[in-house]
Amino acid sequence: MQHNFLTTMxxxxxxxxxxGSQVYALNHNEKLxxxxxxxxxxxxxxxxxxxxxxxxxxxxxxxxPSSELIEPPIEPHLKFIDFVETLAELYHSLxxxxxxxxxxxxxxxxxxxxCLSDPKLLRRSLRSVRQHATEVHDKIVTSAWxxxxxxxxxxxxxxxxxxxxxxxxxxxxxxxxxxDPDSVYRQCPCRCSNGTAPMDEECSTSSSIDDxxxxxxxxxxxxxxxxxxxxxxxxxxxxxxxxxxxxxxKEKINFSKNNISVEGMQAVEEYSRTGKVADFEPTVVxxxxxxANKFCCEEMKSACDAYLASIVSSLDDAIILVExxxxxxxxxxxxxxxQIFLRELPKALYNSAVTKLFCSxxxxxxxxxxxxxxxxxxxxxSQVAMEEDxxxxxxxxLLERLGxxxxxxxxxxxxxHQLGCVMLERKEYKDAQNWFEAAAKAGHVYSLAGVxxxxxxxxxTYSAYKQMNSLISDYKPAGWMYQxxxxxxxGKEKAMDLMAATELDPSLSYPYKYxxxxxxxxxxxxxxxxxxxxxxxxxVSADCLELRAWFSLAIEDYEGALxxxxxxxxxxxxxxxxHGKLHGDQMVDLLQKHVQQWNLADCWMQLYDRWSAVDDxxxxxxxxxxLANEPRKSLLWFRQSLLLLRLNCxxxxxxxxxxxxxxxxxxxxxxxYEGWIxxxxxxxxxxxxxxxxSIAIQRSFEAYFLKAYAxxxxxxxEGTSAKVIELLxxxxxxxxxxxxxxxxxxNLGSIYVECNxxxxxxxCYLKAIHIRHTxxxxxxxxxxxxxxxxxxxxxxxxKLIEKARNNASAYEKRSExxxxxxxxxxxxxxxxxxxxxxxxxxxxxxxxLMDDQREAEAIAEVTRPMAFxxxxxxxxxRAQFHESMGDIASTLRDSSAxxxxxxxxxxxxxxxxxxxxxxxxxx
Length: 923
What we know:
Elements: H1 8-11, H2 41-49, H3 83-96, H4 99-114, H5 119-131, H6 136-150, H7 171-174, E1 214-218, E2 221-225, H8 227-231, H9 235-242, E3 252-254, H10 262-274, H11 282-294, H12 298-311, H13 315-327, H14 331-343, H15 352-359, H16 361-369, H17 375-388, H18 393-405, H19 409-425, H20 429-441, H21 447-457, H22 461-474, H23 479-486, H24 491-504, H25 509-521, H26 525-536, H27 542-554, H28 558-571, H29 577-580, E4 582-583, H30 584-592, H31 600-612, H32 616-629, H33 634-646, H34 650-662, H35 667-680, H36 684-697, H37 701-712, H38 718-732, H39 738-754, H40 758-770, H41 776-786, H42 790-804, H43 808-814, H44 821-834, H45 840-851, H46 855-863, H47 872-885, H48 888-901, H49 906-922
Helix pairs in contact: 2-26, 3-4, 3-48, 4-5, 5-6, 6-14, 10-11, 11-12, 12-14, 13-14, 15-16, 17-18, 18-19, 19-20, 19-21, 20-21, 21-22, 22-23, 23-24, 25-26, 26-27, 27-28, 28-30, 28-32, 31-32, 32-33, 33-34, 34-35, 35-36, 35-37, 36-37, 37-38, 38-39, 39-40, 39-41, 40-41, 41-42, 42-43, 43-44, 45-46, ...
């Protein structure tokens, strides 16, 4: 039985499960394509011919978009000429390094995965950084970073030191001096049975008045002590009290000039007997800490440091105590204060005391003196600052500190390149050019594009063109190279460069946007909409939605424009339209007066229609309108998160899910949304616990659904499958709307197919289709296929294509049921045309070529999508091809790169070991 077959449950995706001859490790998680708002281009252009000019009144206050005013960004992360080779080298480094070095290599891997814009890969690598961290400093930074990635600060009721229950994010676990890479598999200290972390036993000694044989005089008061107890605190004190100094023969010692109060000295005396500091006031413990530093009392210092670290609980506490920690070189106290600062990001960056500490040269030096200045710290801080405000002075200073902390080549490349990006945003083009040139000199080839852009901004266009021309000549051409060069040329040459960029990397949005605007400038708005629809068909972004809305406004299609603007605001609620001159909400207010108004019932009907038609953008727009009327409706925020997940807008989806949790009106509902947040950030077991807690309070559809989904995300055996079926049946007995019940029936059908119960599966799929869950046609096709009814399966997928229109996933799946190889190829070519990011068609075509012994063509076919979407399945397949051809070096490269994506994949691990053995034998 295949596992992960319930991947449709959460994200509402079709089960791809595409199995074809010689196609390996196919992806069951690829998203279903969506039908976009797509007016008939010919009809629009006919309208344009009858209209003397494009409409440009109230709804276009800033005119039409201009091709001269758009340009692609220089991305603020490392790009690699050979991404696969980079991954392979990192995997080999992990194999050969010591345990202490692993954390740094995983951080490098985080940076590599950053360019893929895959939050799950990034988070998994970050978890590995935390898991292998050896120092408290590294633990507090990475645990705070993991928390920031989940944006826990957006959850109502969560304090900075709230523990989510995972060891890797636990604030208490981060302060423990212990290297334990297996801690991820154990319960965190906050979840111990007694609710507290285990404490060391503390000694307690009673003394009689006769034991006191020494007094320290402070001012006019005396503090009686036991000489040998005080002497035992440190070697300097022992020397003073038992060595050749005059104090050794005195019964009273004047301590007035040692900057300690009577209360402080009394605390020293008590500590000398008990070894305890927890009973003292914090101000007294601070005196003890100072005393311990002055007289080298290491055990006392450690006790004070640990106690003070344990009482830091707020930003105000941290701001006050960090100064004492830095002054007294108290490692744990400073760590605890830093932990608060980092867990209060980005808010903490608006506090002048915090920014002074982090941003200034002196602040970094002070942190370094205590062991708390690192590349890791400034990497995290600079990423948060860039996300918050890329142009701010704080961002610049943090990146400068990042550069000062860099020790390895890749670290220097990153700091220099990001400084170039920030200066470019600030329009300080000469500085930007200098930083980009420094990054390029350090070995980062992509920074040369930054050099060219800075030259272009300084009116050195020909120099910029020559720069990119040289880059294309010297290296293997990539889509971003042609895209960048297109900025510096005109006419046919520009058009050719943009076509080359799209051919090499269809995920680049700028070429589509430029072509669409250029076409619009020729007064062919229908063709312009068709062009921008091409990328919106597989990659939804706020800027492309805005552009299509702009075109719709030009032809007075106010409904289409409003739909796209609402969807755009779902992705980015603060989006400014018309080159940053008008907030999207203002445009919504203007357009609403010119379209038909819907009441709540109308909205639900519209949502059903769009959901059934697999029109995710339209569904988003309807939900956005419903939320405008009911902003505290948690169910709607949750529905929005489901749609955004299906559109692969993960960051926006998590934001919606957090809002669903915050607006939950009861505990059982809140627990469900917390469970989904945990599941989506890689905490399956914790998500299961949340679901069970919710069910214990009240049985609900969503709680059972969550538990079933999380439970199904394993290697399912017969018993687990039965449990999942039981949970879904329980869910279907609970109240819910038809949209979600259709999904539940669809998922239940999927399980029955896997359990070889086609009749029960068919019944479930038919129920789903009856309540307009269109995607169930794919499940029904699977049932027909399992009964060897290939024609019926093909017809079922045709129904899905007809209902959903331009659906890449449906074409891809239908290709399995084609009797004619030409029809299979046709469907797969259509899938690639509609969504070039779907990798199954490339893998299938490569496998067919390999079966025909056309090895070079097969390798080329499977290599092509790696330029814009390197992923595990592609690397796995290419590694198998290379192994079958006897190319050991290439097999090693691809299998080791694949293991960076999935380090525990048994088949790839075996292939890698075989290749290593053959390599050793050859040597």
